[in-house]
């Protein structure tokens, strides 16, 4: 009998003009895939034939016999569908679709002429608005056909517009092995805005974040200081639950909004708009931070929040001014702002615009400088979230954003730069992040700039009411490369299906080979099955668990073998691994992290030595999902972890 594979070999997409896009879609959907030949596909028993695959007549003629003998194929190719005996109706015009996994309807960019599937025995995965079958699976002999009546990558399509969950359905139906996961999401969490099982349930919040591969929870920092203390959020409980899952907790600040208490108790500190009204804009009650007295009151609120709980970092998000349209929201027009400008905003609009940008830059710097003065600031991670000024410079200028200057502030104050694309660009497609990422990265030292992706309702904008399925997967894959991480808004707006695939989508640009993996970052890889518990990485015995392991950046050969793990495993880690090894009783590793790192091990550590200095494990906590969490110091270190009785 042939030897069992030592790792899951990628499913083959036959090389064609659109095969690269198919591979990108499948990887973003969490599958292991690569381009290859017809012979490679049939030797592996499964694959994808793109609609423009250059197959010979003999290859097309042989596909039916191959599937009947056990092959699995997904294709929109007309010749291949005919060879497989897939019956179809005459052409109909289609402008929308529903499908498994999609909430609502995908409105297509254009009307497309389609020959729907016909016949019986189909497990229908997608239908047109008029009920025509657009995608389905059906057994054929010992094998299976995944038939697409419409090519999701025809013309200029990216694969998400027509059938938003097609890639996930194809990966599942052809049995594509799981690809790597990049557990590096930073997820915004507003506890006050959650509903259902998450509302008031820190343990459930942490569990859901852990399942989706969250590294950092960005927790809304304004749910305290209410007139009724009983309404204050249980930050202590949530942070404990997050730490117990190996997730870092950052306080998410939204200046110029501070707290309802500051707004209510100090009306003199309310920002003023161009029409003279107090600046209550959307949900934020804006404070005139340009007034030194009001800035001092704001920092007192933030200092209280940050010193009262064991935060791991702070995200200063969206400290900008409201745009001139509508004029009723246009800021800042407080007495302090007008005094500092020293002129007439209406008489010198260009001068006032420049003043706003200068003031916004100075205030962001002032907030970060204050945070750097907190006790224990050396152990905290800092982030500055700003509005991108490259995709739509007009929108950025309207809020006073100059990213080059704000990047200088972030770098000087030891913060990462988080770049959020303005809402005016949200209909440009998910690959806009492929352009935004390099621009953001150019502003900061390597790895210090990351992208923020918004998952929010878009008022009926095409293709769906909210970014989901392949659109979100492609966005995550495109947004991740600058830092090997991405921010996403928010826990309350991500569907369960999107949560399940987010970490895999973030690893879309990780290369999977027949012998291993090539990655710029630490990634989680999978074995051929859960019973494969032993792994050697480049010949080194690895601290792997049953069926999965964390692998550092670089190109590595992976050799899985059957049997239980040789010892405790490194289950998750918030830093970047350098090396790792195990002898069954001790795990040795090197890493780099800012802030402190959280490591989750499958067994309880008895001692930890950092750079040769041994001591008891720091911050030891039991993970409700199994395992133990240890806190490791920020910086670049070598660590040895001992496990008594292992």
What's the SSE blueprint?
Blueprint: E1 11-14, H1 19-28, E2 33-36, H2 38-44, E3 46-48, H3 57-68, E4 72-75, H4 78-83, E5 92-99, E6 106-114, E7 123-128, E8 133-140, E9 143-148, H5 166-174, E10 185-189, H6 202-211, E11 214-220, H7 235-244, E12 248-253, H8 260-265, E13 280-281, E14 284-285, H9 292-308, E15 313-317, H10 335-341, H11 349-372, E16 381-387, H12 393-398, H13 403-412, E17 415-420, H14 432-442, E18 449-454, H15 469-479, E19 486-489, H16 496-506, E20 511-512, E21 516-519, E22 523-526, E23 534-537, E24 540-541, E25 548-551, E26 554-561, E27 570-573, E28 576-582, E29 586-593, E30 597-601, E31 607-610, E32 613-615, E33 621-622, E34 628-632, E35 635-642
Parallel strand pairs: 1-2, 1-3, 3-4, 4-9, 10-11, 10-19, 11-12, 12-15, 15-16, 16-17, 17-18, 18-19
Antiparallel strand pairs: 5-6, 5-7, 7-8, 8-9, 13-14, 20-21, 21-26, 22-25, 23-24, 23-26, 27-30, 28-29, 29-35, 30-34, 31-32, 31-35, 33-34
Biggest sheet architecture = 9 strands, mixed
Derived from helix and strand composition plus strand pairing, the structural class reads: alpha/beta
Name of the CATH class of the largest domain: Alpha Beta
CATH topology of the largest domain: TIM Barrel
Helix content: 25-40%
Globally, the shape reads globular
Unreliable segments of 5+ consecutive residues: 1-5, 460-465
Domain module count = 3
CATH architecture of the largest domain: Alpha-Beta Barrel
Percentage of residues in DSSP E strands: 25-35%
- The CATH superfamily title of the largest domain: Glycosidases
Give the termini distance in whole angstroms. 35 Å
Total helical segments: 16
């Amino acid at each position: 009998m042939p030897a069992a594979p030592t790792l899951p070999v990628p499913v083959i997409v036959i090389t064609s003009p659109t095969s690269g896009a198919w591979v990108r879609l499948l990887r973003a959907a969490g599958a292991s895939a690569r381009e290859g030949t017809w012979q490679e596909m049939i030797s592996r028993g499964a694959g994808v034939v793109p609609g423009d695959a250059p197959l010979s007549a003999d290859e097309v003629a042989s596909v039916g016999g191959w599937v009947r003998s056990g092959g699995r194929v997904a294709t929109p190719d007309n010749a291949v569908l005919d060879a497989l005996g897939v019956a179809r109706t005459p052409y109909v015009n289609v402008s929308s679709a529903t499908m498994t996994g999609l909430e609502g309807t995908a409105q297509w960019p254009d009307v497309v002429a389609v020959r729907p599937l016909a016949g019986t025995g189909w497990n229908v995965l997608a239908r047109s608005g008029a009920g025509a079958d657009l995608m389905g699976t059906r057994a054929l002999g010992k094998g299976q056909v995944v038939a697409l009546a419409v090519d999701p990558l025809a013309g200029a399509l990216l694969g998400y517009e027509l059938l938003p969950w097609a890639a996930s359905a194809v990966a599942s139906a052809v049995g594509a092995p799981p690809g790597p996961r990049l557990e590096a999401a930073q997820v915004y969490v507003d506890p006050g805005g959650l509903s259902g099982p998450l509302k008031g349930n820190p343990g459930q919040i942490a569990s859901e974040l852990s399942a989706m591969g969250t590294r950092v929870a960005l927790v809304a920092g304004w749910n305290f200081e209410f007139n009724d203390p009983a309404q204050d959020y249980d930050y202590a409980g949530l942070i404990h639950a997050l730490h117990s899952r190996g997730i870092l907790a950052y306080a998410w600040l939204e200046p110029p909004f501070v707290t309802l208490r500051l707004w209510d108790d100090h009306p003199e500190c309310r920002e003023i708009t161009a029409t003279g009204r107090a600046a209550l804009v959307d949900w934020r009650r804006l404070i005139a931070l340009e007034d030194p007295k009001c800035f001092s009151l704001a920092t007192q609120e933030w200092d209280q929040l940050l010193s009262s709980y064991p935060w791991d970092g702070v995200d200063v998000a969206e400290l900008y001014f409201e745009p001139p349209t509508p004029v009723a929201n246009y800021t800042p027009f407080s007495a302090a702002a007008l005094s500092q400008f020293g002129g007439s905003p209406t008489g010198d609009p260009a001068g006032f615009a420049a003043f706003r940008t200068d003031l916004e830059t100075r205030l962001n710097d002032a907030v970060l400088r204050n945070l750097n003065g907190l006790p224990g600031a050396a152990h905290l991670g800092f982030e500055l979230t700003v509005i991108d000024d490259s995709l739509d410079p007009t929108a950025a200028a309207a809020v006073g954003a100059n990213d080059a200057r704000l990047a200088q502030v972030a770098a000087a104050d030891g913060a990462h730069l988080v770049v959020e694309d303005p809402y005016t660009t949200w209909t440009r497609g998910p690959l806009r992040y492929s352009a935004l990422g390099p621009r953001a990265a150019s502003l900061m030292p390597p790895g210090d700039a990351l992208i923020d992706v918004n998952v929010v309702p878009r008022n009926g904008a095409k293709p769906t009411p909210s970014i989901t399925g392949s659109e979100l997967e492609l966005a995550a894959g495109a947004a991740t490369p600058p830092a090997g991480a991405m921010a996403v808004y928010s826990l309350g707006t991500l569907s369960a299906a999107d949560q399940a695939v987010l970490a895999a989508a973030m690893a879309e640009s990780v290369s999977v080979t027949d012998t291993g993996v090539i990655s710029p970052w630490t990634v989680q890889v999978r074995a051929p099955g859960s019973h494969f518990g032993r792994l050697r990485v480049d010949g080194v015995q690895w601290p792997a668990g049953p069926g999965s392991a964390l692998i550092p950046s670089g190109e590595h050969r992976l050799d899985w073998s059957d049997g239980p793990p040789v010892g405790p495993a490194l289950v998750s880690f918030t830093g970047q691994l350098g090396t790792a090894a195990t002898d069954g009783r001790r795990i040795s590793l090197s890493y780099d992290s800012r802030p402190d790192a959280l490591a989750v091990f499958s067994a309880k550590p008895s001692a930890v030595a950092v750079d040769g200095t041994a001591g008891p494990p720091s911050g030891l906590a039991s993970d409700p999902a199994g395992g133990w969490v240890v806190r490791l110091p920020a910086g670049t270190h070598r660590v040895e972890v001992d496990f008594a009785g292992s």
